[in-house]
Amino acid sequence: MKKGNGNWFEMSKSDFWSMVLILLLCLLPFALVKSQSAFLGISHFGWIMGLLMFLTPVISLAGIVFEKREN
Amino acid sequence: MKTVELAITLGYIVICILIGVWVSRRVSESSDDYWVAGRKIGTFTNSWAIMAALGSGGSILGVNGLAYKLGIPYTFAMYAGAVAGFPIAAILVARQLRNFRVRTVPEFLDFRYNNKLLNIIVPLVILVCMEVYVVAQLKAAGVTAVYLLGVPYKTAVVLTALVFTLYVSIGGMWAVTLTDVLQGILMVTMVVIVAIAVFMGFGGFASTIQQGTAAFPALGAVVDKPIISYAGAFLVWFIAACTVPHLVMRVFTARDAHSARLSLNYSMLIYAVMIFFGVIAVASAGHILFPDLADADTVFLKVMEHYMPSRIMAGLAVAAVMAAVMSTTDALILAVSSAAVNDIYKKHFNPQANEKTIFKMGLVMTWVAGLLAIYFALNPPKLLTMLYTAAVGLLGSTLFAPIILGIWWKKATSQGALWSCISGGVSYLYLLWFTPMPALSHVLVSVPLSFAVFFVVSLMTQSAVDSKVLERVAVGHERELKAAEAQARS
User: Which of B51, B59, B76, B202 has the most A C-beta neighbours within 10 Å, making it the best mutation to test the interface with A?
Assistant: First the structure.
């Protein structure tokens, strides 16, 4: 039984790094919210938010695949 | 009255009812079948069902109206929050909640904290929030039917509500799941067809955007709103996947934890395709073809009518919009019924109730919830949109910290959960109603506050930590449980 150490239950490495990566990616666009730069007329903030919709599930799925390999 | 469109919509409604009747044999007197579809839903089915449950009327009409009005960046910020929340839910809650073998969110909180006051507050908050959500969706269905079919608002509201209440009451979660798959496929297909037609009409993806932003430069610009408004819009839906019961319930229906995690991610990839390409196509075409729409929410319908002169295609598009509304409201109504029966009736009024009684009460409560929704939707409150947004924010503010910390933090106590729930909910409502904070930004204060209160109170009440409960929570974290379950099934 995996109980983890200290005060928290253990999270698999792949889950942990997937979560960290997703959270960082979620924060990244907000650094560009005031930027005026654009591509095809849409601000970089908009593009990154749009891409985030595809990237976050892919990262999580990759974490699940890695975890399966770990096991 | 548009006869062809109406006939196609009625055909779709009949199929939904037939699905309900067909699956009603499966749920006969088994409450597990009724509430969580026997925990047998596979990855493909659950992926489409999750996508459809999230994709309400707002995901077809509202999202394009928002992009038309406030631009693509703001719209993507709000919907990216919803999408990114599901992969996080797959990591933080899916495996554990599935492994605990509970049927509702309050059931998990009871198992983890066993706090009497929390057992009363949480189901009541869920009941009120979900019912408000249903009424808002029902109003959208009525408005859509008036515009597209030419039928009176009251007729449309009553008919729509009776249909989904009927198939949910007789088919429970099985009916919700199977109709959601049909509805999900229908709505994604129609949005993608419209998007492809637009891109072909304007000479490709890039060309469509360039023409759209040339016609209306603000379409691609970041609107001048405070950054906390963007962050709040993102966060409200980011935490929804972990807290809004009709979405969390889909995890309980999965055949195992691995399938639940996969489904949450696959569903968001499908949803992302629909939102990303749909919004870019419809909002761009909307500004090129219909630059001065008085009601932005009609932009999808206008663009659809322009590119699909065929009445059959228009009829299918009407059915797709109705499907978007019904696929969410059916899941919501089951969540309301589940909270009333499992978390209030059985917990507080009749703990000895057997499977048969629970099953019958589920049927009765589904109709009560459906009829109440009709009553309120026929006379919708003026501030319905505000109440609906408040409902989602309130759920996140009250439930996010107790759920996440209950799963992961060994020092979490019932007093910590209770005061976190109260402080999150009360602070959210106070900020919403009594302060001039920008729209949607209130959760930026209430959610961190609920976490802070949780940590402080739990650390002050450490003597209340029950080691037996912790042992059971540890079991929920077992990755190997999936294999053991599969072995047991075979």
Answer: B76
